[in-house]
Every structure is written in C-alpha cells, then in structure tokens.
Amino acid sequence: MDVLGAWRAFVNVSERGSFTEGAAATRVPQSVASRRIAALEKHLGERLFDRSSRGAMLTQFGRDMLPSAKRLVHLADDMEHEAERAKLSPLRLAVPDICTVRDLARLDAEARRNGIYLDFHAAPPAERAELVRSREVRAALTVASPSDAVWSVRLGLAGATDRLAETVYVETLRAGRAAQSSRRSRIWIQPEDDVPHIRDRMFRTRDAVGLQPAQVTVSTTLTAATAEVLGSTDLLLCSVRQAEELGLHWRPVGEIRLVRSFGVSAAVGDDAERIQARLWHAIARCLGARDRDA
C-alpha cells in the first residue's frame, strides 16, 4: 500500500468534502483515491468516512486522524521541496587549471542536463587533492596512477616549428646533436605534469640519454613555458589538445609513452560515483582524453 498516497488522498477528500474533487486534487482517478482510502481503513481497522451519507463525511475516527494526516502530508511536501533545493545546490569541483573556459562551460552545461550543478575551482595537482582532504571542495579531478586512471591523456612534445620529426626522441637534444643553434634545446614540463609518474620518468630518460640536467625543466607556469617554446627551439611536454590551443606542433616521444592520469576524489563517496557515471564523456572532452583508451 502507498501509505503516503493514501493519507494524501484522505486529506484532500476530507478538505473538499468530495471524492471526485479530492481525487482531482491528488491527481489520481476517483477509483484510485477510493481504493487507497479503503486500503487505509482496512489497515487501521476503522472507517474514516461515513459512506451512508451524501458526499464525503468524516467519521469521528476520521476527524481524530485528520490533524496528524495533515502534518504528515505537509512534512512530505516540505521534504520534496528540500530535495529539489538540494539537487540545485552547486557541487564545488576542483579541476586542473589548464582547462579552458570553453571546455568548462561545456562540462557545466552537460552536468546541468544530468541534474548536477557544478561550481569550479581551478588548481594545480597537489592543491586539488588537499582541497578534498580539507573539504573546501566536495570533489576533485585528481592525479591517479596510470593503472587506476579513469581518464588518460597522452602526452608528447610540441614546438613552434612544423619541421619536427614524426617522432621526437629526447636523445636528439644531446649536445653535439641538437639542431643548428649553439644553444641547447630544452624540454619544459608544465605544473600540471609535475607529478612523479611523469616528471620522474622524464628525468630518468634525460639522464639515460645524456642530456644536461637543465635541459628538462619544470616550469613555474604554463604561460612561461609556452613563451620559452615560442621564442626558441625548445619543446613543451603537453597534450595534443593543448598544442592545438597554443599553436604548437605536437609529436609523440620516442623513448617513452607518457600519460596524464586522472580520477575522482570526493569527501563523500557517492559524489565521486555520480560524477564518474554521469559525466565521464563530458570530463573526457574537458581534459582532452579522446576515448577510454586515450
């Protein structure tokens, strides 16, 4: 038995003095309202209405039950209202600060279509994780190990010239093999990629092929790194999407395969599950992950 529906029908019929009008107020057919009230009477063991009279006349038992029934229905209405408000409450989400306004706007629009209202907080990797721990945000797109990644974004090297080889090998930047300029070309790692599974692998590759320590450097900002690349033969470690946005020419790295790996962290577990389930593709577009195997 739909107990709440039965009490709602009882209140509406009693207030209007008519099964027909009460059923209409409950937004059910009269036959449904009658069955619900009859089931309620059977459950309670007493009649709520005197069916021998014209109209819907309450019995004494019905009059005694009416105040409590009204409180129950009003409480249920209030709870539904609060539930709607809660669904509209923004979910503060920490995102990589490399996400563009356009990509975040598209993610926001997709989230709204899925009943999620987002409030973005852009931050670098370590800060995003801390924001979740301190509960300054409800959830964050955080760094994950490649094996545990929900979203993966392939990285390569991008330069200002289109005269790069189809695949760029780090060893070609070694002294004596670097192209034409006496200045040694460098590889710039942006803050988003200053994480162990990317940075340390690049440093190990640098050392293995004989580059100078300064030839693979972590930049303080993406803007600063891009400026260095635009004015030289330096290369930026970045995604295909970023290279296109910055007007650079992207190539894969010859010696190693590097990926940005993301997951969802949340203060409350179901927030992470909801974001991943409802917004996987929208977040993939925002991060530049082309598909589940990117």
Features:
47% helix; two-stranded antiparallel sheet; alpha/beta; 294 residues; single chain; nine-stranded mixed sheet; 2 domains; Arc Repressor Mutant, subunit A; 11 strands; D-Maltodextrin-Binding Protein, domain 2; rod-shaped
Explain how this protein is built.
Helices cover 47% and strands 18% of the residues. The protein is rod-shaped, with a radius of gyration of 32 Å. It has helices at 3-16, 19-26, 30-44, 60-88, 101-113, 125-133, 196-209, 222-230, 240-246, 269-287, and strands at residues 49-50, 57-58, 91-96, 118-123, 139-143, 151-159, 187-189, 216-218, 235-239, 249-251, 258-266. The protein has 294 residues and is an alpha/beta fold. Helix 5 packs across helix 10 (269-287). It has two domains: 3-87, Winged helix-like DNA-binding domain superfamily/Winged helix DNA-binding domain (Arc Repressor Mutant, subunit A, Orthogonal Bundle); 89-294, 3-Layer(aba) Sandwich (D-Maltodextrin-Binding Protein, domain 2), CATH 3.40.190. Strand 1 and strand 2 form a beta hairpin. The strands form two sheets. Strands 3, 4, 5, 6, 7, 8, 9, 10 and 11 form a nine-stranded mixed β-sheet that branches. The protein has a two-stranded antiparallel sheet with strand order 1-2. It has ten helices and eleven strands.
